[in-house]
């Protein structure tokens, strides 16, 4: 489709085929790997990152069986308690998945053998000291490259010590790595983080979490409990939903219903930001499923009238994966966007601050880059020639600019889209199937 002709795009429909949540899928598989007996995970994600976690568990000797029926995946994992894993024959390939590498490292820290974790070029550049420090303090031997990145060489200890650890960053991957290690330690551990990162691991394990007077959050974990085999049902991914919501908001007339979406408050702060900026978004039919609120998101035609400005440390932590979408949307709708206190965004699958600034500038936006964010001031020109968008192999950058291509006013040509199945394998089908009554200008 030619983007120049799509300014009157109408988005209507009910979507019940969003990808299952990536974060919850990873955790369900990892918790099943520590349980006693056979766990069943219904609606497991077919995203490449989640498949990487399953492959890693199989490489570590677990029985992992995946069946697909009508596009819905069910995974069965049989384990024999906290110490079920066996040494892998080779280095464990984590591909593009930081969640696999960091959270699995927490489990491997407690296994009495050596493992090596590797990944693709993007993952091999990402910081790993953040997990190496606490896992070493608990008694594992963890070695990193001189740049403090993977390969991660871990020799686990069957006798990990409990820890009281204050993380310098709000990271659910770091917190979960420590929680998984702490399940194997004899005693109570506590993990304190400067803002509340996504709390799926706590919910799935029934852990206590509290907000401290200084605004930090503390999670407590008691070790060496027996985890029973479980039955998990994975809801749809709110971070994937965000891209379809953006498409509906940018369209001329839309009414889109996204069903069975995870509405965990640590994941849907972006809906509040969009509402405050003028978007008409409602949530309906909310129910508790496996400890997570799950319901429908209804988006109707509304244009953003107020530019987005994201700066609070809690807000940044709560919308960390949606910033590419929010920046693109705010820039296109209001010609303004500001982000601060988000240096973490430089450590994702790409340096997302640099990636967004570079591409928005190419689209004609005047941007100022900060160490921890950026400002979009105005659109100085609308390019007449096709604009080359560099995705840096990052699925969320690719999806954000694919959505932008519908109403950028200029033709956007993405350097690649092969990264998108990392989190959203049916992205193109989902975006195309929501088009209805397409009107050409
Ligand atoms: C995730 C946590 C976040 C997020 C990532 C998934 C998780 O990373 O960006 O996509 O499932 O725990 P950090 O823990 O590095 O913030």
Give the helix proportion (percent range). 25-40%
Shape, please?
globular
Report the major sheet.
4 strands, mixed
Total beta strands: 22
Whole-number mean pLDDT: 95
Biggest sheet strand order reads 1-14-16-15
Using only C-alpha atoms, the radius of gyration works out to 21 Å
Distance between the termini: 13 Å
Question: What would you say this structure looks like, in words?
Answer:
- The protein has helices at residues 22-32, 48-59, 98-108, 129-137, 172-182, 200-205, 238-250, 269-276, 313-318, 323-334, 352-362, 395-404, 427-433, and strands spanning 10-15, 36-44, 63-69, 72-80, 92-93, 114-118, 141-143, 152-155, 164-166, 188-193, 208-211, 217-222, 231-233, 253-262, 280-289, 292-300, 308-310, 337-339, 365-370, 373-379, 387-389, 412-414.
- With 441 residues, the chain is of the alpha/beta class.
- The chain has a 4-stranded mixed beta sheet with strand order 1-14-16-15. Strands 3-4-2-13 form a 4-stranded mixed beta sheet, with helices on one face.
- Helix 7 (238-250) runs parallel beside helix 10 and helix 10 runs parallel beside helix 12.
- It is globular.
- Residues 1-6 and 436-441 have low confidence and may be disordered.
- Bound molecules: shikimate-3-phosphate.
- Residues 23, 26, 99, 171-174, 176, 197-198, 320-321 line the site of shikimate-3-phosphate.
Keywords:
4-stranded mixed beta sheet, disordered N terminus, alpha/beta, 22 strands, 441 residues, single chain, disordered C terminus, binds shikimate-3-phosphate
